[in-house]
Amino acid sequence: MTQMMRAAGNAKDSGNRLKRFIYMMDSMTDAELDGVVPLTPSRIKRVAMGSGTSLEEVNVLIMCHKKFGKMIGKVGKSGLMRGGDANLAQQMSRNPNMVMQQLARSMDPRMLKQMGGAQSMMGMMKQMANM
Asked: 87, 79 in Cβ contact below 8 A?
């Protein structure tokens, strides 16, 4: 029972964290989001003030973005994304466990844990395949 309560709390915390990330990204310009303009300390402060978050939270967002970018690069090198989204959706429907094993090998285990584990990632991948 306590494990279920912890999982529900973690899901709620994750949802709140995601909402705060969205608020921060909404406070960024298109150039900042695209990485065309570097995020200087004054820009980070503006984003924090505009989103109602702290400087530390904006820095966490930037750190997570960098980690996610590295992970996506590894996934691309693993061949998982070869052929585009349609190929990934086809692979997910044929053998989802193989896709998850490839994804887990290319991800930092701590990041996988932060994202809710392999099963959560599987759900996310299925949702993205249906878009």
From this structure: no
